Task: structure prediction
Amino acid sequence: MSQRVEAHKSKKRKHAAATAVDISVAEPSTKRPKKDKEAKRLAKEQAKLDKGKFRATDDAFRVVRASLTVTVPPVFAADLRGGVEEMLDSMLMRYIPALQGVVLAHDRLEFLDKVATIKADCPFAICKVALDATVWSPQVGMKLAGKINLCSPDHISLLVHRTFNVSIPRHHITTDEYEFEYGPAENDPEFGAGEAGKDPATGAEGQVEGGGRWVHKVTGTKLGDEDGYLEFTVIGLTIANQMLSLVGSIQPDPFSPAHVPKAPVTTATKAAQSVSRPDTVMLSEKEVDALIEEGQDSDEEEDAFQRLGRMADEAEAAERRKQEVAQEEARKEKKRKRRESKAQDRTADEEDVLGEKKSKKKRKS
Result:
């Protein structure tokens, strides 16, 4: 009986020890509660949103309700709506002055007349339509952000929305804070060893750095954020072949006259300034010698083509002067002959008059 009681007690002790071990193992669990995971996920999403606020350029996008006249080719006579949409599609990604922006999309097409018009013998159908056009219309003074894709000592090139080109000239870069750092040469052995596993056209962060980059003079950090995006102010629009590109500035006061580039002073400019002096100004011998030396230097700087062109111009001018002299001499000769003929006619008339007088006197006598 006592043996059974002892066995029962030993089983209870073993069961209690196993339970204590399970509890002690379960206490240091590293599993995070669901609330912490959810909070972490929300924090990441908020960080993404905050990061995207820096690159927000939605102000340049707008929807315009426009009405226009479209000429539809006769091939779309059976489907005028399809023809109009085809014509509107040809306007996409082009700068339309009437809309003051680049057309990105069109929607809600509506015909303003129930029938199309055909004038005279022209086979094209004229349709008046209205539509909603989504345009990208940046304005001067607007702040945008683009990704740097090229750096050079003269300018920085960016892409806005991976589509639209932006150029920031040197005089609109804060050169008092940033300086251009040239990249390694392609034939540099260190460059070849370090960049063997990378694309030679693109840097580690997707930014083209083969030709160099703009870095801070003190800290050495590159211009732009970690992803290569740079915020700028629009100071000009360039439209060529219905394509829009922007001119930007990262100066704190982009419209200041101090950022307007000055024309370089060349030898030709100095010579023109010296020639434009009034005749009453007396030049000293030193000034005359200096002017002669500048003229000689400018002649030495001329290349062969410029010299040939100048010689051809001089020969043409000399030939023109010869022709003018010959024409002047011919005119003088004609005048001389005309005067001589008049003098001869006058003497002949006088002789006739004298002859008549003599004949009359003879008759009287």
